[in-house]
Design brief:
Blueprint: E1 2-5, H1 15-18, E2 24-27, H2 33-39, E3 45-48, H3 56-59, E4 67-70, H4 80-85, E5 89-92, H5 98-113, H6 116-124, E6 142-146, H7 150-161, E7 165-169, H8 175-181, E8 184-185, H9 188-194, E9 197-200, H10 214-219, E10 224-228, H11 237-245, E11 249-254, H12 265-272, E12 276-278, H13 287-306, H14 321-342, E13 349-358, H15 366-377, H16 390-396, E14 400-406, E15 414-422, E16 425-434, E17 437-443, E18 446-450, E19 455-462, H17 467-477, E20 482-489, E21 495-502, H18 508-518, E22 522-527
Helix pairs in contact: 5-7, 11-12, 14-15, 15-16, 17-18
């Protein structure tokens, strides 16, 4: 196998492939884009960090490429969909730089609290000033961690060693997992209102981009300190600059930026701000971390050559082909069920149970459970959750997974039920296939019947005359057209559940109007990716 290395990678970490006579390694660091496209066709594997863009245009020239190895956690520079469509495996190294990022977070926090950069610069200029650099202790302060994953959890442990009070927000982490860290799980709003220091450790996606903006800064304590050693763009950088200028924020320490290298006027002002401690994306830049990620991806390439399973593959399922053919119709069903309930159920499940009833239960349903789990947990981690890593991610979150099979069934020839158990109770959703079409037939204790579509609206309310008419009127006034409706209720004039498929999404203002009009107990918009 010929392996191309295009970024600076620790050679000590590459020994697994450098010492393997079956593997030829070529170092071509910093190739111009056109030259890289010219040469990529010679190679079966490529190892990169963040500088090389493995995009669709490059992959179109990669006629022999079998595996892309990203020596790090993020795969923002790899077009995974384009790679998957060509049968190219993508692997990353999700654990090698975790400790490095956690330690850098603490380094930034301590530097900010003790004014180390300014004091260092002042003393080097041969001045001797002490009073201007009086700092703050961490002991007794409340640290708010947004994202209690691999990095956030390690930050929590280190902060506890400094005798800080630690609270955390992470809808995908169980209470048991938080207890293991000695951390109290709270809503995001409590982090915003009560924390003396706020640090983020989430992936950058549609949910987290700009999640800390002007509104959140306004509700923070005066004199709060904010840290970002995760991904640029989680904090709204203009709002951060404003909060520093109006003294709402006493100090900030950022390692990452929405654009790297940062060249916008806002970023230039933010970096130059006297209350900022800044570094140029050094969270993973330790010799140990660089060696670790190089070792991880090198081992994956050796595993590929040996035909062994890959531990950190991003985009490949591994199921028996014959079994996959029989399970194929149900994979879409359970993925829809998992995606749907993940948007409705309370956060922090402690246990997830997959129950299979009917003829389906005669087969090994493991592929279905993994697929449903991946759909349930996706977007909840700083790495993509898929068929390969779903069980591992669940285990890291402290979630217990159980699978139950029974050939007995009452109403349907085959039924898949997904049950989530947590501190706020139990939530159940069940689905089946009608002539190959996925349908959801039960939610909580409501019998219901609908086909999941791209935009949906779910609500519960007290069943009384005229309620549905009010809902339809409000949606119509917002130019939201109802495609289908399914109604379930426990008894006459009791609690009712209604599920609408709608042609376009309903905004929060519209949902608030609907909730007020019918005094809804619960209302939530659901988006299922086509």
């Amino acid at each position: 196998m010929k392996v191309l290395i295009t970024d600076e990678i620790s050679k000590n970490g590459l020994l697994p492939i450098l010492d393997d006579p079956r593997i030829q390694v070529d170092f071509k660091v910093g190739l111009p884009v056109e030259e890289l496209r010219e040469t990529i066709g010679e190679y079966q594997a490529i190892i990169t960090r963040s500088m090389t863009k493995v995009d669709r245009a490059l992959l179109e020239r990669a006629t022999n490429l079998k595996i892309i190895a990203r020596a790090g956690v993020g795969i923002d520079n790899v077009d995974v969909d384009a790679a998957s469509s060509r049968g190219i495996i993508v692997v990353n190294a999700p654990y090698g730089n975790v400790n490095s990022a956690a330690e850098h977070t603490m380094a930034l926090l301590l530097s900010r609290c003790r004014n180390i950069p300014h004091a260092n610069s002042d003393l080097k200029s041969r001045a001797w000033n002490r009073a201007p650099f009086t700092g703050h202790e961490l002991k007794g302060r409340t640290l708010g961690i947004i994202g209690l994953g691999k990095v956030g959890g390690r930050v929590a442990l280190r902060a506890k060693a400094f005798e800080m009070e630690v609270i955390a927000c992470d809808p995908y982490i169980s209470e048991k997992r938080a207890d293991d860290f000695g951390v109290k799980l709270v809503p995001l709003d409590d982090i915003i209102r009560f924390a003396d220091v706020i640090t983020v450790h989430t992936p950058l996606n549609d949910e987290t981009r700009g999640m800390i903006g002007a509104e959140q800064f306004e509700r923070m304590k005066d004199g709060v300190i904010v840290i970002n050693c995760a991904r640029g763009g989680i904090y709204d950088e203009k709002a951060t600059l404003d909060a520093l200028n109006n003294d709402k924020v006493a100090g900030a320490a950022f390692d990452v930026w929405s654009k790297e290298p940062p060249d916008t006027e806002t970023l230039k002002q933010l970096i130059a701000h006297p209350k900022m401690v800044v570094t140029p994306h050094l969270g993973a830049n330790t010799f140990e971390a660089q060696k670790n990620v190089a070792v991880d991806v090198s081992k994956e390439i050796v595993n590929y050559v040996d035909g062994r399973p890959l531990s950190n593959a991003v985009n490949i399922p591994r199921f028996d082909p014959d079994l996959m053919e029989q399970m194929k119709p149900y994979l879409q069903l359970i993925a829809l069920i998992g995606d749907f309930i993940s948007q409705l159920a309370p956060p922090n499940p402690n246990k997830v149970t997959f129950t299979y009833n009917g003829k389906l239960a005669r087969f090994d349903c493991t592929p279905l459970s993994v697929c449903g789990l991946a759909a349930l947990l996706n977007h909840s981690s700083d790495q993509e959750v898929n068929l390969v890593n779903a069980n591992l991610v669940a285990r890291e979150m402290g979630i217990t997974i159980e699978s139950v099979r029974s050939t007995e069934t009452e109403s349907f020839s085959n039924l898949i039920t997904l049950t989530l158990e947590g501190s706020q109770g139990t939530r159940t959703i069940a689905g089946t296939l009608f002539e190959g079409i996925p349908k959801i037939v039960k939610m909580r204790n409501f019998a219901i019947d609908f086909r999941p579509e791209e935009h949906m609206l779910v609500m519960t309310y007290s069943d009384r005359p005229g309620a549905l008419g009010k809902i339809g009127t409000i949606l119509g006034a917002a130019d939201v057209n109802i495609g289908n409706m399914s109604l379930g209720r426990t008894e006459k004039a009791g609690e009712a559940m209604v599920v609408f498929s709608i042609d376009s999404p309903a905004d929060e203002e519209t949902l608030d109007k609907v909730k007020e009009a019918v005094n809804a107990n619960f209302i939530r918009a659901v988006h299922i990716k086509p």
